[in-house]
Structure of DUF423 domain-containing protein:
Amino acid sequence: MSDRTIVIVASLTLLVAVGAGAFGAHGLKRVLSSDMLAIWHTAVLYQLVHGLGMLAIAALGARFGSPLLGSAAALMFAGIVLFSGSLYLLAASGVRWLGAITPIGGLAFILAWALVALAAWRAA
């Protein structure tokens, strides 16, 4: 992924996260149980944090110039889709097996951050 693409995807990811957060706080407050609403909020939090992480990766691209950063951004986006996406679906539908997908997204986050660290290490 190019730095420009990363910024675009990260910005759209953050836009959706803010909307999802507002929707959860206002639209779902009376519809979901407190447990399911907490799951929704966890999805929003991880989406926000990792969307910002993608912006940081784009900023680091100019400094380190490592192709690992593009891979890290792609993994981070995959993590957002799998982790947050599965939690949104779980909270909205109550289908518990969707929670089995969530750790795959978490693993993508871990691998993405490891690639960022490796890119910085190699640049030194």
